[in-house]
Amino acid sequence: MHERDLRRLAGQIKHWGRELGFAAVGIADGDLSAAEAGLQEWLDRGFHGEMDYMAAHGTKRSRPAELVPGTVRIISARLDYFPPASADPHEVLNDADAAYVSRYALGRDYHKVLRNRLQSLAEKIGTEVGAHHFRVFTDSAPVLEVELAAKSGLGWRGKHTLLLNRQHGSWFFLGEIYTDLPLPVDAPEAGHCGTCSACIDICPTQAIVAPYTLDARRCISYLTIELKGSIPTELRPLLGNRIYGCDDCQLVCPWNRFAQTAALPDFEVRNGLDSAQLVELFAWSETDFNDRLAGSPIRRIGHERWLRNIAVALGNAPPAPATQAALGARVDHPSELVREHVAWALARQQTTP
């Protein structure tokens, strides 16, 4: 294709992306050499914790053409997810008997929603140019999605390590199409965090150990989602009532004053999880958990870790007979992991003034 045709195609791709519900689409080359050393240092320091997949693919994460041979461009897309009719997150966090679930997980599993739209976009490109080599990614392979999105002009990496955008804050998902089409690339945006350190200061576990550096082993999202075993005892009180993920660094970010709510119904609240009570959720059987959370990203952690997380939150709640009774009902749970966290929570309930 001629350069003029490629420029026209790039404009069409962005238009088609908006028609599919994306807030914006950008295009970058695959040169991530500037980020490769930083990634390796992060891995060497063990900040990825048990997320072995972060180190399992060698340089494929920072060299897109090694992951998908023939790749010369990456099409990045943003999709807003903040539920428009959800309970105020600050009110939920301030109610110690309520369960806080990260806002991204209140609706449908974003993997399917995003992947289907990216696939549709890639196929739409195919109807215009004919056969082309591409592969779609939605947080499902060794991809440096924030770096690629920043290179494509969709925003800049904030000090909390998430992508920020002046018109949309950070309440959005990212997805990519690796392609062999030599499309014109977009200019990256300069950072706009300035001297602000709000996200670093607010982190309950001080997981943001330096600007732009996250020690995942301390991050509540890691502890409640990625960690398979016991949550470190010293960190449990810091989790508060957060049972799946954490949004504190986003809630305090000044740029999220400009964030947009989700336009897609897929991200509307399900099962009342925006403000459910801990005792209510702790009573769910494994069947309840699997049935009610079908199609939700939460289902991937399984019922055992669901109970583990809620037990910690109940241990952090004000002492109350209903809370102690709920924990007591799980004292003899078949899982050693659950029993251990229940015992810790009961001890907290009985000793907290």
UniProtKB/TrEMBL annotation:
Q: Where along this sequence does the record place binding of [4Fe-4S] cluster 1?
A: C193, C196, C199, C253
Q: Which residues bind cob(II)alamin?
A: R61, D139, L163, L174, S221, C246, D247
Question: EC annotation?
Answer: 1.17.99.6
Give the record's keywords alphabetically. Answer: 4Fe-4S, Cobalamin, Cobalt, Cytoplasm, Iron, Iron-sulfur, Metal-binding, Oxidoreductase, Queuosine biosynthesis, tRNA processing
tRNA processing found in the keyword field: yes
| UniProt key word 4Fe-4S | yes
User: What metabolic or biological pathway is this protein involved in?
Assistant: tRNA modification; tRNA-queuosine biosynthesis
Q: Which GO terms describe its molecular function?
A: 4 iron, 4 sulfur cluster binding; cobalamin binding; epoxyqueuosine reductase activity; metal ion binding
GO cellular-component term (any) = cytoplasm
Q: Which residues bind [4Fe-4S] cluster 2?
A: C203, C219, C246, C249
- Family per record: Belongs to the QueG family.
Q: Name the chain's protein.
A: Epoxyqueuosine reductase
> Which species does this protein come from?
Thiobacillus denitrificans
What taxonomic classification does the UniProt entry list for its organism?
Bacteria, Pseudomonadati, Pseudomonadota, Betaproteobacteria, Nitrosomonadales
